[in-house]
Design brief:
The structure is a homopentamer of 354-residue chains.
Chain A (H helix, E strand, L loop, with lengths): L30 E8 L2 E7 L14 E7 L4 H11 L3 H8 L6 E4 L4 E11 L4 E11 L3 E6 L7 H9 L8 H37 L3 H33 L7 H66 L8 H4 L3 H22 L4
Parallel strand pairs in A: 3-7
Antiparallel strand pairs in A: 1-2, 1-3, 4-5, 5-6, 6-7
Helix pairs in contact in A: 4-5, 4-6, 5-6, 6-8
Chain lengths: 354, 354, 354, 354, 354
């Protein structure tokens, strides 16, 4: 399926709230894992079924259930039933083509995000949808496939570094959000490196590959921009929204995420500007080079075509060509030829072509 | 009539509220059909006249009357009389060149939409105007011609899938709106495919057809954009507006439609960006190719023009040309020629033209 | 005077409220006409002097006085005195370079508009300033010259079609506004036709006239845009403004005018986009054609220059040129020439130039 | 000093409120003049020192003191002391690089403006800073040098034309503002004339001077725009601001200045659009011309290179060239040459190059 | 590390509030200095440790502690403890990749700024992060390295010039802010000079270096813009924000800084416009020059190719070429050649190529 339009046509017209998985099936096995902690206490385990996690939930402790793989509609339905999730939310979780958004419900806060990856071999950015359900003392995270950018967060929970073990569920949600936004910078740095490589090589050698590299970077920026822009609204909304799921302390940290998001957008915009400047530089380099090619051709042709004509004239076989018989005829012709060449060179000199 | 400006001049200056059909007559026969349902009860039938539907209307049941073909002014007037529709609304229904909008009246909510189609043979998007009149327990939909994107909705009503049979008239209006917006994605996917086909082929072979394809896609995007942009305001307005015709539950579903509309706009904008990048790529490919052509010409001409001159010199017929009589004259000339060629090749090498 | 800047320098520095006619004198004779109606009653006549109309004014009846030609400062002053018009308003009426605006005074509402015309011979849009003074039961309209787009309105008054005879003075003002905005579509349709003609012909034959046509249409769009944009604010302001001169019923009709103005702006913007796409198409067509010309030159030159050199070599007159004496020398040369030509053709084939 | 950045580096880091003259010293002698009037009474005189004006100030009369030349820091300090002007205001008056702004203090209203001039010889727009201090019955105006656009205002005061003699100090300030904004139109008209001259000449003859003219006009527009844009905010602020220095009547006149400012901005923007369209037209004209040049070259070269080759072949000196001995050999060669030429011409005809 | 993306990946995923220095280590030794003053009293000294400054802090006096070098995490932590600074603030101070921002805490106001420098050798702008902590009677400033733009401020404190000695801590913060913003103008002036140098040289000689200069200036503008834009929000926020750390008097001075920031942004935008105009001028200069080159080539080739053909014809060695034997054959050929040349020259004259 194309990266440009991922909204599949197969849901068009189906009843809202109908649970259909939309998107590529990126993993075969659905994998559930749980981290449960409260101060010094920490339980980390894989889950066979979602119902085994339920007894853990209690006030004062934080339970993070991560689901890798969202194509198993039955499982999602079961989770929906157990955690009282609205059918529309379940539909959104299954639909991997959602625009980043946040929605506050009575019993939970629902956030859809895009986690971006950089595929080094193809130089392609890919986005994976992350859905977060933030309840009172439980956080559900849904991923399209295994593998994420949350490892440092898990590490912090395991080691009890910082305030994460004591700071509750909203802080955990913040930490995940922060990890995702931080990862945008990894991507931006990669693109920044490609931009700088381009900028350096364009001076020496503007070859054909360059114009494709310019187009490729631009395409990636367009793609990244589409993922990051809506995030600004989402974080701003979380900041302002008087929902009971985000405490005041976490709100202050969210302000930091907001700053980072704005800065990521700033960087994308200045990359676009830089790219557009490079495009102009590339085009004028091409034009310039063409000019140079043309000059060489013109100089050579303009010098030799007239003197070839002179040689041609005295190659004619007329019976009566008095010059041919002259003693110094041949020498004179050479002098004329040299005069023409010198005149031409002076002309080019004056035109600053040499 | 042109797709660019459809506001016909024939109404210019006519009295407002005058019922005149504006637009192409896309169908010959006007066709009326009704779906009437309330829970398990379902009546679906064609109507001979609009008055036969009236007795069906009652609280608790939903009646959807669909009119295919709006050129029959008398019929529209009759419907207006029977359902107490304002003359200005009737005028808007008849005028197929309306901008999408919504207007709340005391007795009904009036929404004008554009349903888009993709004509696969011409690769042209066409828009058909849909007018919805949402009353208390009746929904009137006016189409320019038979054939629409509502079949899945009808199917859901027939099979009683989801909440549609029980959810009232506003939910039905939402379902139609949703079907229309979903269909925008079908169009976008088609355009996305054309964009990607373009992107792939541009590397191999930037031929003349490509520049027309770029222009064609851009033209379609401009057209689609003009249809979709106003829709955002319409849906946002329906969401915010405190009109009594849209219940709170349906409002939540409308938020979904709003998200989809925003996403469609996002996609159109990134298509435009992509297209503009492709246009740049195409132009620099053309420039590059010209450069290559010029180089070949310059190399050939620059090598052969000087040595042709040498040959020309010794083709002259002067009586006194000492070189002609020399023993190794001919060989020397060949050596000179080879030297010139080698010098030229080295020059091109240094210029990186070879 | 130039169409680009019409604010004449002659008023610069004159006292505000000084009555000076600014603009071209488009008519010699000032012509006053009146339509007076109240239900079935209708009087339509030319006026010799403005004072003859005064006795007609009475509550319940609508009097429309139209003045064609505004260069007669004395007359404007007299009208100002009789109808208690503020000197600044009079100055604005006389100044044909005003930006569209509306101003509410205690005794009247003042609206300045631009009525556009399409001059078919020059393909130029021209704008004429219309000033409306809407009092309690009188409407004054000032035009630069005779000839307007109000004929259908007059016809409706004469025939008593629609609600115009009974709907009061504000409705009449609306009707005039509507007639002006409707006429923008006539212009847009003309431009749309030129755009489509351009689009069709660009494929076949991108000649020099096309680039002027592109520029001309763009110039007209810039001009039209400058007239239409401010109108949006004016109509929006009339809609919102709590002035006593516009009744609620007429307000609803004004909403229609607002929709049309927005749609006109939309259309102008998409015309601009289309034009910009056509400009790109035109430029790449030119580039492409240049490429083709260059290819033909390069193919011919690259094939014949080397073989001409060969012929040149054997045209030399050295005494000792062994090949010249060979039995199959001439034939061999021909074979070499054919080999070169075939090699070149294969080279071009591989380059896809043939 | 450059017109692009006039903020001098010499103030960087100096204490705020420090009085330093920043800018070019445009005049040697500082000149003070006063106009004092109240109804029929009028005193106009040059002042030797600012203190001589003080006794004139009284309620009911208006005193306008104009200072030409602001490099005399001591004088400015003295004025500041006498009229209770804030040190920051004095600093702003001395700094000729201010952005247009207005600031309300307790005892006066401070407005900074840019008066533009058009230097006809260089075709350059220059801006001079005007600072106005509007007190209760005194107006101070500071100019960089003698010579301004206020002469018509002075004339109106002298002749007592209009309401100026009786309308108080705020009206005088308005009159000066109006004179400055009116003068923008003089500049715009000059630029408009250059644009139209450009537009006309581009069709006939797109020479090198044209591209510099395009750049020059654009540079002037950028400069003018930078002066005019901030003015909009200033006037809008004066209109809204509840400061006691501007009476209600003058407010109404200011609305007129606001309209003019908006219109000036509109005109600048449409000039930019027009210029950009002309730039495109110029570029495609250049491209087109290049195309034509190339065609001529290609036609000539493509016709003569092949037939020159034929002539070259029969110029070879092989002993065994049977054609050379044929009776009709020469004639045949001519026929072949003619055939080639005709074939080529037909080819060009088909390509529509002829 | 690249100047384009400075947000280091090494913090990605680390716990918020974790103190890690992010950025280049620009200095080896951390240097602390203090200025303490209150009216006539002034103590200026280097500090060995931050704790030695603490006893100085007292109401009525202002203590400015400047820290050059922020890579010493232990020191920053100690300062944080001593001055009750929030961990998130400390993290921001250590992270040199912050976007300019201001945050009000209960005990202090935190402002992050970018101080720009112009490296004359590389013509590169570099930014250094300045963090200000404004407490009740203490101001902490953190710099990445020694060397700043605050020397004039220090000089004013030392000499007691202006109001700085008596005006409190907020005024000092304002003075630093003002010094930073003033320094933007130094940079802008440098760029302005480069722009003008470019503009002058483009007329004479559009060489390859120019297109790199255009790109370089644009890159610097993009970089500078990214630093200055967020500053506007920061200053606007400081102006509006009801925080207790900025007194009303200082607020008035801040308005001045705000004006300067806006003006800097204005200047950057008009530089961008100017640059874009120069880019267009450069491109059309290149195009024009190519055109001229082509014309010379075409004129020479078009004149000589046909006459060379004529010479070639009479160089053929046919036995029966009657012209060769004619008495005036040679002369006739010369006349034909001259006729062809004259005809060509007239053709070029008519085409305005000569």
């Amino acid at each position: 399926m194309s990266r440009l339009t991922r909204k599949s046509t197969k849901t068009a017209g189906s009843a809202p709230g109908t649970l259909i998985h939309v998107g590529e099936k990126k993993t075969d096995r659905v994998h559930l894992s749980m981290m449960h902690y409260a101060g010094a206490e920490l339980i980390e385990q894989s889950l066979d079924g979602i119902e085994t996690a339920l007894p853990r939930l209690k006030p004062g402790a934080t339970t993070w259930i991560n689901i890798d793989g969202i194509h198993d509609v039955t499982l999602i339905e079961q989770i929906g039933r157990l955690f009282h999730i609205h059918p529309l939310t379940l539909e959104d979780i299954l639909n991997t083509t959602m625009r980043p958004k946040d929605e506050a419900f009575d019993e939970y806060l629902f956030v859809v995000l895009k986690m971006v990856r950089y595929d080094a071999t193809d130089c392609l950015i890919t986005a994976e949808q992350i859905s977060l359900i933030l309840g009172e003392n439980v956080l559900l995270s849904f991923q399209e496939a295994a593998g994420d950018v949350f490892e440092p967060v898990r590490e912090r929970i395991r080691k009890g570094k910082g305030r994460i073990r004591t700071a509750g569920c909203d802080y955990l949600a913040y930490a995940l959000l922060d990890a995702i936004v931080d990862h945008y910078y990894v991507i931006l740095e990669k693109l920044g490196e490609r931009l700088e490589a381009l900028e350096e090589s364009i001076d020496e050698d503007a070859d054909a590959g360059m114009r494709e590299e310019i187009h490729d970077i631009r395409r990636e920026l367009i793609y990244l921009r589409k993922q990051v822009w809506p995030l600004r609204e989402v974080v701003a909304h979380l900041l302002k929204g008087d929902n009971p799921f985000i405490g005041e302390t976490t709100g202050m940290f969210l302000r930091d995420v907001y700053d980072h998001t704005i800065q990521a957008i700033d960087t994308i915009e200045s990359f676009r500007d830089t790219l557009s400047s490079l495009q102009d530089l590339y085009l004028s380099t091409i034009s310039n080079r063409m000019n140079e090619v043309m000059k060489v051709l013109t100089i050579i042709a303009t010098i030799f075509i007239p003197i070839s004509f002179i040689a041609g004239v005295y190659g004619m076989n007329f019976s009566h060509m008095p010059e041919l018989g002259w003693r110094w005829g041949y020498l004179t012709v050479w002098l004329v030829i040299i005069a023409v060449v010198v005149a031409m060179l002076l002309f080019f000199k004056r035109k600053k072509w040499l």
